[in-house]
Amino acid sequence: MEPVSLGQFHLVHNAFSFAIAVMGAATVFFFLSRSQVAPAYRTAITITGIVTLIAMYHYLRIFVSWEASFSVLSGQIKPTGVAFNDAYRYVDWLLTVPLLLVELILVMRLSPSETVSKATKLGSLAAIMVLLGYPGEIASDSGTRWLWWSLAMIPFLIILFDLFVGLRASIEAQPKEARGLVNLARWVTVLSWCFYPAVFVLPMLGITGGDATTAVQVGYTISDIVAKAMFGVLIYMIAARKSESEPQH
Known about the structure:
The chain is mainly alpha-helical. It has a single domain, classed as Up-down Bundle (Rhopdopsin 7-helix transmembrane proteins). It contains eight helices and two strands; from the N terminus they run ααββαααααα. Strands 1-2 form a two-stranded antiparallel ribbon. A hairpin with a 2-residue loop joins strand 1 and strand 2.
């Protein structure tokens, strides 16, 4: 673990704490809101709550690991020698990133065959993307990081293509009342996900030491809050809007 200043330690510490609070509050909201949408959309809302629940758990683990890595005494901070376990973040992504795409597919209420096809394809690509990113994340040299970053970008770009081209007709077929929200959810997914590879390359652009550690941890945390909690709220809004506009049986 690279040494950080006291201010950097508290910034990352507070970012993790904020993420725990946001994910916890979002989880409660999503589970309590299931009854507010039509039965056809409750699975999507349930998965949304599961995503933030998983994220809250892993941020608790990350928070504890961060605290264990440093000792703060009398305004002085020193590394304890206990390694900060950033693998929690990748385990979280491996579970939650595919589910985020499944949320979007389910709330669009496509045909059963298209739902299975799209969810399987996009979910698998998302898992492969995360698995390819981890070796680069733990690498110490820029060459190795760039290699795995480039490999991870392949499934990432395929996902982007599918979201904007493969789902275009399906989005246009959505009810008028919800079409704008579905399109917004697609854009939130793309823009928030683009932030992850941008944060990943910061250490390869000359940002080193505590500055790199702080930028990466805070950057990933902001991305997670947008990609999971805020995206989840959009999923709920889409489900609620479609529940109001569609005839109930």
